[in-house]
From TrEMBL:
It comes from Streptomyces atrovirens. CDD domains: SIS_RpiR. It holds the Pfam family SIS_2. PROSITE patterns: SIS. It comes from the Bacteria. This is UPF0309 protein ACFPWV_20590. SUPFAM superfamilies: SIS domain. Residues 36-220 form the SIS domain. Belongs to the UPF0309 family.
Length: 251
């Protein structure tokens, strides 16, 4: 009988997934980081979108210490996070056709910008349409998804396609269909999802790459510092003043 606790097993599973994306997604991470760096250097803006729990990884990129100040959250009302009541409404909105186009029409996104779209399954209408419509506008799209869903589930988009089919670059989180790492004989459902920790780490590795690429080109990466260290607020004020026309989360 193994003495490994469920906590041990979950952490081991998460570590294994992190090692997989480190080894198997290295080229994609490098390409995505370079795409972000190119966008910054060319005067473009950066945006991130995710629905439901996928929005957690998008929010993790925005206005945070050590992150790129130019990363903006693309908000779809009722879909970002689980604060909408009832929470099931957010899931329903992901399956509403036409919503992505309306959101993009009202957003500051324009040709030459970069948009990260995060959807674990990549099967719902909203993220697929978001990628399609964004690219029609000349926006470069990085999709973050589990490619396994395309092989093991059906698309909910009328085209029958998935998020991965409409991106300039795809980052595969390698999360198994169902997003639950553990099972126990006396627990009727699989449990312990790892998609948030893995997707967040995957995207932070992209940001790290972008910062290094910019620095290698002689461009200071527009990074934010913690407001809880001496001089942090002054640093951030300088960055926000310099890049204020590309930052949309402040008024």
């Amino acid at each position: 009988m193994s003495d490994r606790t469920p906590a041990d097993r979950f952490l081991d599973a998460a570590i294994d997934l992190l090692q997989r994306i480190r080894d198997e997604e290295a080229e994609s991470v490098a390409a995505a980081g370079t795409l972000l760096a190119d966008t910054v250097a060319d005067g473009g803006r950066l945006f991130a979108f995710g629905a439901g729990h996928s929005s957690l990884a998008a929010q993790d990129l925005v206005y945070r210490a050590g992150g790129l100040a130019l990363m903006n959250l693309l908000v779809v009302p009722g879909v970002v996070g689980v604060d909408v009541m009832p929470a099931t409404l957010g899931s329903a909105l992901e399956r509403v056709g036409g919503l992505a186009g309306v959101v993009l029409d009202s957003s500051p996104l324009r040709a030459g910008d970069a948009l990260i779209i995060i959807s674990l399954s990549g099967r719902n209408e909203l993220p697929v349409e978001m990628a399609l419509k964004a690219r029609e506008r000349g926006v470069r799209v990085i999709g973050v998804t589990s490619v396994a869903y395309a092989a093991q589930t059906t698309s909910r988009h009328p085209s029958g396609t998935f998020l991965k089919d409409h991106c300039d670059l795809v980052l595969d989180s390698r999360i198994a269909v169902g997003d639950a790492e553990l099972t126990l004989d006396n627990v009727p459902a699989p449990f312990a999802p790892a998609s948030t920790v893995v997707t967040t780490a995957l995207l932070q590795s992209v940001v790290a790459t972008a910062a290094a690429v910019l620095a290698d080109r002689g461009i200071e990466p527009p990074l934010l510092r913690s407001g809880n260290v001496d001089g942090g607020h002054e640093w951030n004020a300088r960055i926000m003043d310099e890049y204020g026309d590309r930052i949309f989360y402040r008024h």
